[in-house]
Amino acid sequence: MLGIYYFDRLYNEFWIFAGLILLPIIILQILLIFLNIKRNKKALSFTIITFLLGFIILIYNDTELFKSEILMKAVLVDDLSSLELKLRNNNTFELVPISYLGSSEKFTGKYTIDNNKIIFNNRPYDNDFIPDTVYIIENKIIIKFNTAGEPDTSFANYFRIDKNELKKNVP
User: Fold this and answer.
1) d(CA 170, CA 117)
2) pLDDT tens, position by position, 70-94
3) Which of 67, 113, 125, 153 lies 20 to 30 Å (CA to CA) from residue 49?
4) How many CB atoms lie within 10 A of CB 77?
5) 29: phi then psi, degrees, rounded to nearest 5
6) How does 51-75 read in b/e, with b if 16+ C-beta sit within 10 Å?
7) Is 85 helix (H, G, I), strand (E, B) or coil?
């Protein structure tokens, strides 16, 4: 459980200290636990089972093995950061902000598709940067339109679609 907390929370907050301070302390604590319970078979069995359970939970949360198939994958690239959007087969989405410091909080929720519109049923971001409805036009997901009603494809105003397995009738 500490490993899950470490990777999900502490690493994103204290990434500089992770390798230098936090990781060696956690490894030392785990070694001390194993040395102290080496004499007690029940405690050793319980510890191994707990570590295996934590490892399974970590794999379940952080890998694609048990998740629904990705139908669309798109990336919005900014100066020093990016947003990765994944639309899944079970009508859920994931939006992960990634910066030069690493990834941060993942935003998840439900979406629906209406012709060339992606409608996010849950707010996809903390602020109004990404609206509730975006449009698929060619190989881009458009966030904004200019005053003339044309898609705004200027820098950092659209997602580049890297994978698209959605309905073939979506333009």
Assistant:
1) 9
2) 999 999 987 778 889 999 999 999 9
3) 67
4) 15
5) -65, -40
6) beeeeeebeeeeeeeeeeeebbbbe
7) strand
